[in-house]
Amino acid sequence: MTRATTWTSHARFGRLFGVFSLAISLLAASLPAMPLLGMTPRGMRGLSAQQPPKAAQAVVVDTEGQETALQQVEWSGNVRRLAWLADPNAADEDGRRGPLALVIREPHSTTLTQGVLTFVPVRSLAAVEFDYDRQFVTYRIQGLQQALTGTLQYRGINTFTLAGLTAAGEKRTFSGGVRGGKMSAIRSVTFPQAQPLQRPREGLAWNVQILQPTANDPLVPARNLKPLFALAGGRERLRDALPLRKAEPLPFGPQLLRWEMLAHDPNTHHAAAEVTLAGQGERLVIIPLTLPEEGQTAQLLGLLGETDAGWKLFPLHTIRVITPSKRKIE
C-alpha cells in the first residue's frame, strides 16, 4: 500500500466518523434528559425514592367484612399497665410504666363484678375474634396452642377500643366486643408482629379454687403466687410474702399445705383465713387489706399468679381454697 493510498483511506474514515458523531449528537439532543441508571439527580439512590410500606401493627376485619391495616395502634378500654414490672430508669414507656396488657375475664373467673382477671401483654396477642351472635370472644396468644375465651354477656366485660392510622394517614377507631355504636365493630383483628411471652415456665404450682357455684367452684391453676399491692400514681408492688396482723409475713412456699378463706371485710379492711403449714398444723391468720408503705397507704389487690398466657389476679374475696397443685382439696 502506498503512502497516498493510506492518506486517502484515513481521510475517508475521518469523514465517516464525523458523520457518525454528528448523528449521535443530534439524536442525543432530541431526547429528554435522563439520569444515569440507578441514580437520581441527588445521587445514587435508585430510580424511585419512595419507601416501601411499613408492616401493619394490626389488621382489622369489621362486621361488614371490610379489612383495614393500622399503624401506630392505640388501645383503650379494658387494658392496664403491669406496673409491678415497671423500671423508672428504662428507656421506653413500656419499661418505665410497665408493659401494656389486655384485661380478660375468662369463663372461670367467678360471677362477681370484681372477679378473677387475666392479664395478657398486648405484644403477645396474635389475634382476637368476636362472635356477636354467640356473645363469645376468642383470644389467640403467640406461641400457645390453646386459646383463651371469654363472654360478651356482661356490659363492659371483654371489650376494648383500637385506634390507628391507615396507609393513607387516616385515623380509624374500632370497637371490640360492642356493636351498634358510632364506631365500626371488630369481627377479628390480627397482630402480625406479635411476640411470645419470654418467661420461664417454672416455679411452685398451685390450684386456686374460686367461688363460682354455677361451675362447681372450679380449680384455676397458677404459678408463683404473690400478694400484689397498689399505691398512688398507678404504682404497684409485688411482695414475696403476705403481711399478717401480729404475725410474721406468710410466703406461698413449700411449707404451705392449705389455705382456706374464711372472711373478707372491706369495711374493717381485714380478711381472715385458715392455713395449714408443714409441721405446724392449722392456724387462723388475719390479713390487713391496707398497710402503710413509702409514706402512703398501699391496698392489697389480691394474689397474683403466673400462667402461660400472662398473669392471673385473684382478689381475696374470689378465693375459696388454695392447695399445691398435686394435692387434692378436701
List keywords for this structure.
330 residues, globular, 13-stranded antiparallel beta sheet, 2 helices, mainly beta
Summary of the model, kept short:
This protein is mainly β and about 325 residues long.
SSE layout:
Elements: H1 3-30, E1 58-62, E2 67-77, E3 79-81, H2 93-97, E4 100-104, E5 117-121, E6 125-131, E7 136-141, E8 148-151, E9 160-165, E10 171-176, E11 184-190, E12 205-210, E13 219-230, E14 236-238, E15 241-244, E16 247-251, E17 256-265, E18 270-277, E19 281-288, E20 290-293, E21 296-306, E22 311-314, E23 319-324
Parallel strand pairs: 10-11
Antiparallel strand pairs: 1-2, 1-11, 2-9, 3-4, 4-5, 5-22, 6-7, 6-11, 7-8, 9-10, 12-13, 12-23, 13-14, 13-21, 15-16, 17-18, 17-23, 18-19, 20-21, 21-22
